[in-house]
User: What shape does this take?
Amino acid sequence: MHINSNLTSIITNNVLLRNESAFSLSTGKLSSGYKINTAGDDPTGYAISGRMRQQLAALERADVNATTGKSVLETADGALNEVNDMLQRLNELAIKASNGTMSASDRADIQQEVDQLTGEIQRISEQIELNGQKLLDGHLENHGYCENEKMVQIEEYNDKIKAGKYKVTLDETFDPVNHSLTVKAKVETDTSPAQTIMDVNLEKMSYPKYLDSELSYGDSTDPAENYNGTWVSEGAYGRDGEDKKQDGFVKICSDGTQYLTLRGDNGEEINLRLDKRLTEKTSAGIPKDADGYRYKEFENISGLELDITLTGQGAMDLHIGANEEEVVECSLPRISLERLDIDNLRMTTKASAQQSIDRVSYALKYVSATRAQIGAYTNRVEHSISYLAASNENLSSAMSRIQDTDMAEEMTNYASQQILVQAATSMLAQANQAPQQALQLIQ
Assistant: This one.
C-alpha cells in the first residue's frame, strides 16, 4: 500500500482520459455530421474525400457552364429562326416578282421590302449577342490563314477536318465564249507522303453572262469611273447537275471577289476568299461579247499552290467536365448577306427576280444546315448536363459513405462512451480515496 504513488488512481485516470477522448470524438461527429473532422480521424479517408470534394465542386461548375452554353446556342438558334422567316418571305417576293403580270412600279415596291428584309438579316448577324459576346459575326468559328498568299483568306472550315497544315492546289480557267469558269482544287496534308483530303472538280460553272441588266451602259461609259460593285448580278455557281453545290461552289461578288467553297467526300469543308486582285483581269478593261454586252474576265490561276494553316481555334469552347480538355467545341458560322449569297439582291426585273429564287433557296439551305448544326450541339450539351447530374449524384453518394456520420450508429456509441466516462469518473473518485486506508495503519 503506497501513499506517494496511487497506481489505482493513475490507471483509472488514464482510462478516464481515453473515454473522454472517445466521448469528445463522438460528440464532434454528432455535432458536425462528419465522421472525418480532422486528418487524424482517418488519414486515407480524409485524402480521398478531399479529392472527391474538389471533383464535386468542379462538376457543379461544369453543370453551370453547360447550362450557360445551352442558353447561348438557344439564343443563336432563335435569331436564325427569325432569319429563316425573313428568307421565306424573300422567297415569296422573288416568286411574286417573277410573274409577268407585275409592273415596274410593283417590282419597285417589292424591292423596298427586299432591302428592308436583307438589312435586318445583316443587322441580326452583326448585333445578336449574349453577355456582350457577338454570336453570328464569325468570331466563334474555326480560324485559319494562308501563309504564302496574302490575297487568299480562310473564311471558315468545319470540324470534319482536323487542325494542321495543308497544301491547296487551285486551277481556275475562264471560257470567254461561254462565260463559264472551270475550277479544280486539291487539298493535301503537309506531310510526306501527302494525303489527299479533298479532290474537288467543278466543271462548266455558268457565270453571269452580262453585267447587271437593270443598268444600261453605252460605248462611252468608262468602266473605271462607274465600277461601283453593282455591275455583275451575283450568284453562287456550282457543278452542273441536280445539286450543283454538292462538291462545293464559287460565289462571284459584284466587285470581283470570289468565295470558293470546297467539300470533301467525308463532309469536310473549307471556305476560301480570293481577292479580286488575284483572279480578275483588269488590264484590258471590261470586254464586250457578240451582242454588245460587257462581261468580266478572270485570270488563269492554274497551278496556284497555297500553304494554309487551320489553327483549330476560334470556336466557342464549353468546358463541361471536371478535368482538363473536357470541352465541347461549338463553331457558330458567320451569317452575313455575303455568306448567304443574298447581298445586292435585286427583284426590279423579271430576270433578276428569277435569279433571286435560286439565291434565296441557297440561303435557306445554308441557314437550315446551320440550325441543324446548332441543334446537334444543343443535344450534345443536354446529354452532358444529364451526365453531369448523374455523376454529381453518384459522387455525392460515394463521398457520403466515406465522410458522413451514421447518426444512429454514432448515437449508440455516444451513449456508451458517456456511460464509460461517468463510470471512470466514479471509479477515479474511489481510487483517490484508497490512500486514506493507509491512515488506519499509523493511528
User: Anything to note?
Assistant: The longest helix spans residues 43-97.
